[in-house]
Every structure is written in C-alpha cells, then in structure tokens.
Amino acid sequence: xxxxxxxxxxxxxxxxxxxxxxxxxxxxxxxxxxxxxxxxxxxxxxxxxxxxxxxxxxxxxxxxxxxxxxxxxxxxxxxxxxxxxxxxxxxxxxxxxxxxxxxxxxxxxxxxxxxxxxxxxxxxxxxxxxxxxxxxxxxxxxxxxxxxxxxxxxxxxxxxxxxxxxxxxxxxxxxxxxxxxxxxxxxxxxxxxxxxxxxxxxxxxxxxxxxxxxxxxxxxxxxxxxxxxxxxxxxxxxx
Length: 239
Fold this sequence. Notes:
Layout: H1 2-49, E1 57-58, E2 79-81, H2 88-96, E3 103-108, H3 114-119, E4 126-131, H4 134-147, E5 156-160, E6 172-177, H5 183-197, E7 204-209, H6 214-218, E8 223-228, E9 232-237
Parallel strand pairs: 3-4, 3-6, 4-5, 6-7
Antiparallel strand pairs: 1-2, 7-9, 8-9
C-alpha cells in the first residue's frame, strides 16, 4: 500500500507540481466522506435489490463495432459505462415534484437500467431506456424481469438503439443523461430535441448528471437553465 501511495504521489508531482499536488490532496481529503458514502451506497445497492447494475465497463467491452465507438462517452481510463449513483435520479425527481403522470421519462445511455428503474418507481406515463450496447441492454432486460411487478410507471420500455435515431414521444418529457455521448452524438440528439419540441407546447426537461458538455446545453437557444449544482444541471425548453 505504501508503495502504491508513493508512486501515486510521484505521478502527481510530475503532472501537477508541488503546489498542484498539495491542492489536489487537500480537495481529496475534503471529498473523502462523500466518496466513502458513495462507495458504501454503491456496494449495497445490487446486494439489496438483487440486480446487476454496479459494474463499470470499458469501451472495448461494450460489444459495439469499433467503427461505431467514437460517439460513446468515456473517461480517461476508457470506462464507457458506470451507473448513476443509486440515490441520485430518485432524489432529483422527488425534489422537483413534477406531476409525473403527465410526463414520459427517457434515459439515454441507460446501460444496465439503474436510472430507468429509479424513475419507474414514480408514476410516469412511460419510462424508456435507450442503450446502444446490446451487451448492456440484455442485462437491463434481465434486471427488469426481476422487478417489473414492483414498479409504478404505467409502462417501461428498454430499447437497443442509436440515440440519434430515437423518435421522441408526443407530450411532456424528461430526459436523463449521465454524460453518455461525445460531442457529435450529443449535438445530434440536441438538434432532434429542438426540432421535436418546436412543433408544439409540450414541456421538456433535461437532467444532465456529470455535465461534461454543459457548454453545448448552455449555448442552446431553445433551452434555459433552471438549476445547477456541482454534480448536475437541469434545463427546460424555453417558453
């Protein structure tokens, strides 16, 4: 353990310098209670629910053709799928207190289904998970079969589909994103949303968790920001 820590510090010193390393370590200590809480919550979720949602998956293990991988979001380590923190989607939806029966909920990059199942605890008109990887889609279907009788949404659909080809349903909609795409796919998805919601008076809300591409949303003329925290941003279509 001491050797691992020593090597990590050496890497930090080379990349950040002495002062940058001090700042990074200070921030890490400040965030430690939050990180420990998240790890404990994460470890307990699948065990408690009997589902498989907590595994992280690298881009090469998604079962996607190499030529089609460019649009998938990923971190610096090549991780393309990790689930939303267990409590986040439900907490946001509960706090905002929408008239759920009047809305559809759509999760792009739904993976193994965790955010879909959290949303389906609310009485939405329909909850939809859109996932490009068939490997993750099949796991989500297996998970859904285990808990479908416990859900409160009127309908739950899991689609294995390119998000750029998804046709949005009529009526009010809440879109959930856990940074699933890179710029090109995200831009196309936003353009599709803008065209769809320019047709009528329906309401659109976008919950963007880990908003790496927030600038694209902030600069979109058809969206306005209604809430922003350190972890997520919420937008709605401009009235």
